[in-house]
Design brief:
The protein has about 230 residues and is an alpha/beta fold. It folds into 2 domains: about 160 residues, Rossmann fold (3-Layer(aba) Sandwich), CATH 3.40.50.1820; about 60 residues, no CATH class. The chain is about 40% helix and about 15% strand. The strands form 2 sheets. Strands 1-2-5-6 form a 4-stranded parallel β-sheet, with helices on both faces. A two-stranded antiparallel ribbon has the order 3-4. The protein is globular and about 50 Å long. The two termini are about 30 Å apart. The relative contact order is 0.16.
Length: about 230
Amino acid sequence: MKDNWHYAAGILGQEYTVVTLDARNHGRSFHDHVMNYASMADDLYGLMEHLGHASAIIMGHSMGGKTSMTFASKYPEKTEKLLVVDIAMRSYPPGHIPYFQAFETIDFMSIQSRGEAEEALKPFAPDMTVRQFLLKNLEPIPGGGYQPRFNLPAIKQFYEESIGSLNLPPSSFSGPTLFIAGDRSGYIKEEDKPRIQESFPNAQFKTISNAGHWVHADNPSEFITVVQQFLNS
């Protein structure tokens, strides 16, 4: 969701034109039963065409990072620079199952406050940062209660691909590329780098201190400094 980029977009927006977006089936974007990285890359292409942007610097985190890699591979002519935040091209273990269970079992329609919703989410998401991101996916219903903004069935159907290996051809995008990792994350490991550099031969790597997977939220100051240095290079 674009809300996850609110702070970073505000800072970077002082120097650049910044466009944030909700992925399909997330936030306030449209719902569709089709969900894959190719379609989400095409959504980004369509948005750029709609806005009249011939090319742009593309940045994405986690699932958005894989979407950004796919976009740069499909549309290198529209990608000036690429920034990928805390995700590699390999597959990952299915660590999000409890979050699916939460939204399938909690009766959010009967919940009357965000505090109550957070309490209900605690057994499924003990980490407070994760709970805060999950809470952003709830919107109040007139008359009381909450409902998810996202399209859960489509996201569940896409889940295996979303955490699966991203198979891109060699030299998919040869422009300036930066992979940013959190030092407490483990999503980008040393052994991931050769495969990344095969598809992104000009890839650089930076690690943000005191940051887990939610790098831009855990240490926004250092994150923004690293991004600005890359953009100005």
